[in-house]
Design brief:
Rossmann fold; Methylamine Dehydrogenase, Chain H; 4 domains; eight-stranded mixed sheet; 12 helices; 38 strands; 18% helix; 34% strand; disordered N terminus
């Protein structure tokens, strides 16, 4: 197969000419692969684009990226957006990811334009901040600075185990730093986690070792992110000799999430096989063996979504949707099982989202259609206070030490960067601590409107939050960007718009839709758009698009949609099911041939959410809702920008390559269909400051070029 002819010439032509229509896309021959599944003929014309190591594919992707780069960077708005986005991104220092141990605060510190956040500490809220580990100076062989991915603080706060990864590959290496001296210990554990499977660490009570996850040290490349197990490491000993602790007999795609009592007397391990599923829970006392206390039938909400379990006085408190889809708080006493547990707080109007043990009891963080609420309870489940959070805001974390006094609540809003508030239970008030991010833009003019849109099937009211400047006089011609996610029960919540202020300053509108498939109203909201009903995600987005056009915001000629990862899958559904509703689509690290992707090793994590095409019944819907196979010829598709990372371990870049090839062949609109395959990047995890600035600039420039 000789496909590289003319690619170099195409790239050179693009770099010498202005962006124009039609764009000179490289030749993409269709070489059909036909397969039969339960009597259905499935044709894949661009299977050859899957091999990212093929010289032909590399040349093709390079030419496509050159076209996209030239098109975006030649737009009149590009230079202005680049300058403004960089200015707005150079905020003051951001502090986040707080853990408190014995009045020692340990957290991330991000000071743009430094490439990556650092790990720092202070003694108490008012203590002097001190650097523990700086990844920006931890550079080897001229590579880019690694990013810190996860942090596990010892029970006495004297040491921190943390993982680093490089270039978006998410191959996590576990390291340990001594907090007092800020010196790295010699302990280095590679393959501790990565990709869809996270690292987990449980510290020993005496701080001399910990239980940790690790992938097999041998095996094929395709199996490197499977069959993770737990081992015990003693500080100062060779990790290669770490004894096995747990994991035999678990599914190959198992993921582990952990929590432990701050006194070290008990710890819990949650195992789930796939994304967005219910977990099996195991508990142990001290350094004993793990005993199963709950099964997936007990519907303990997936712990990968946050701190959904905590120890309170040595009892394990979990969120379960077994009796109520919005989630009860169930207490599992030490030595007991879920069946012997007690519902300590029954589900209310909001969906339970997180549990944090605090002095005197615990705090629940709850979700009401994407926005946060929080309540303070005694250990017995008596409600002691409702935290006075601002409207249309989101809790980004709650940190406390049950042996101390401080309870720190981190929250954010569309117009408010992350800030720390101290909760004072006796007064039931939140007090500003002064730990806030200074910003270079004026966000006082940002206004947020929250509306509810009736779904196309009439079964739901979809929260839609619309962000604009107070001075914007929106109408149907106003350029509007709408984003959504709607997968795995993950909540789409208010976030600080940061550099997106540049879009609002140009008179644009930004909207976020909390569609079904997410967790904005609990498990029922998630379950309403999985498997055979996954199409409701794009239907909900379509309902919001129609509402915007009918209510004084961008109509179909001025509306763009934006999504990434599973939100990228949503973009594929939206543009193939309702192409006339959108003028432009920016899809980042998305997957589009879900029917084929779930058959790959990494796709196994998605089967619980989307279905298994090896089953005749499930095949019908997995195939029906795989956008790649439903691009139709001679259709006027919207303008499309697909961005993908060469090192992505979660969604292979072949997904974007194939989808772009299909759309370029089929579309009659004349609008650009662009692929930007980025080297040195992955799924967006750990992107540097400059990479983030570039990505936002590309997105805003693309929409500016299409929606005006």
């Amino acid at each position: 197969m000789r496909l590289a002819h003319g690619f170099v010439a195409v790239a050179a032509f693009v770099l010498l000419s202005a962006a124009q229509q039609p764009l000179p896309y490289p030749s993409t021959p269709a070489i059909p692969v036909v397969e039969n599944f339960f009597g259905t003929q499935v044709t894949d014309p661009y299977r050859w684009l899957e091999d990212g190591n093929s010289p032909q594919v590399v040349a093709w992707a390079t030419a496509q990226t050159a076209i996209a780069r030239q098109y975006i960077e030649s737009q009149p708005s590009y230079a202005g957006y680049l300058q403004r986005v960089r200015t707005l991104s150079k905020t003051g220092t951001r502090r986040f990811g707080l853990t408190i141990r014995r009045d020692r605060y340990i957290y991330y510190r991000d000071t743009p334009p430094e490439a990556q956040p650092e790990l720092v500490t202070r003694q108490g809220l008012r203590g002097v901040e001190r650097l523990i580990f700086n990844p920006n100076t931890f550079v080897r062989n001229g590579a880019a600075a690694p990013s810190i991915e996860s942090v596990f603080v010892s029970l006495d706060g004297s040491k921190v185990a943390f993982t680093t990864q490089e270039a978006g590959a998410e191959e996590e290496t576990l390291r340990v730093v001594d907090v007092a001296s800020a010196k790295l210990l010699p302990d280095v554990i590679p393959h501790a986690g990565g990709g869809t499977t996270p690292t987990a660490v449980l510290w020993d009570k005496d701080g001399k070792g910990f239980v940790h996850t690790r992938f097999p040290l041998t095996g094929s490349e395709s199996a490197r992110h499977f069959n993770i197990k737990l081992y015990h490491h003693v500080l100062g000993t060779p990790p290669s000799g770490d004894p096995y602790v747990f994991g035999d007999g678990q599914p190959a795609n198992v993921e582990y999430y952990v929590t432990q009592a701050t006194d070290g007397n008990a710890s819990a391990l949650f195992a789930d096989a796939g994304d967005g599923v219910f977990a099996t829970a195991y508990v142990r006392s001290g350094n004993g063996s793990f005993t199963r206390v709950a099964t997936p039938a007990d519907r303990i909400n997936c712990c990968e979504l946050g701190d959904r379990a905590a120890f309170v006085n040595d009892s394990l408190y979990v969120i379960s949707s077994k009796r109520n889809q919005r989630g009860d708080i169930v207490q599992i006493p030490q030595g007991k099982s879920f069946a012997q547990g007690t519902t300590i707080v029954a589900a209310g109007r909001n969906a339970a989202d997180q549990i944090t043990a605090v002095p005197g009891g615990f705090i629940t963080s709850e979700i009401d259609g994407g926005d946060s609420a929080a309540h303070y309870y005694s250990a017995a489940g008596k409600m002691l206070g409702q935290l006075p959070l601002p409207p249309v805001s989101a809790i980004s974390g709650i940190a406390a030490d049950t042996a101390g006094q401080d309870i720190i609540v981190s929250y954010r809003g569309y117009d408010t960067p992350n800030r720390w508030l101290r909760y004072e239970p006796s007064q039931n008030r939140l007090v500003r601590t002064g730990v806030e991010t200074k910003v270079p833009g004026d966000y006082s003019q940002v206004t947020v409107r929250r509306v509810f849109v009736r779904s196309l099937d009439g079964a739901a009211q979809i929260p839609l939050e619309i962000v604009a400047l107070k001075t914007t006089r929106a109408d149907a011609s106003t350029p509007t960007i709408m984003t959504a996610y709607g997968s795995y029960g993950i909540v789409s919540s208010p976030f600080f718009i940061g550099s997106l202020l540049a879009w609002l300053e140009h008179g644009g509108v930004f909207a976020q839709a909390m569609i079904r498939g997410g967790g904005e109203y609990g498990e029922a909201w998630h379950a309403a758009a999985v498997h055979a009903t996954v199409y409701k995600r794009s239907d909900d987005l379509a309902a919001c698009a129609q509402w915007l056009g009918q209510n004084g915001y961008g109509d179909a000629k001025h509306l763009g949609i934006l999504g990434g990862s599973a939100g990228g899958y949503l973009m594929g559904l939206a543009l193939t099911r309702n192409p006339a509703l959108y003028r432009a689509v920016d899809s980042e690290v998305g997957f589009y041939s879900e029917f084929r992707e779930v058959l790959t090793p990494n796709g196994a994590f998605n089967i619980p959410e989307f279905g298994d095409p090896r089953d005749p019944k499930q095949f019908s819907w997995v195939y029906a809702y795989s956008p790649y196979y439903h691009v139709k010829p001679n259709v006027a598709y919207p303008a499309v920008l697909m961005e993908t990372g060469e090192n992505d371990p979660r969604v292979a870049p072949r997904e974007s390559r194939k989808m772009i090839a299909m759309l370029q062949t089929a579309s009659t609109s004349g609008y650009p269909i662009l692929l930007w395959q980025k080297s040195g990047e992955g799924h967006g995890i750990g992107n540097s400051f400059e990479q983030q600035v570039a990505a936002t600039t590309q997105t805003l420039t693309f929409f500016e070029s299409q929606l005006r």
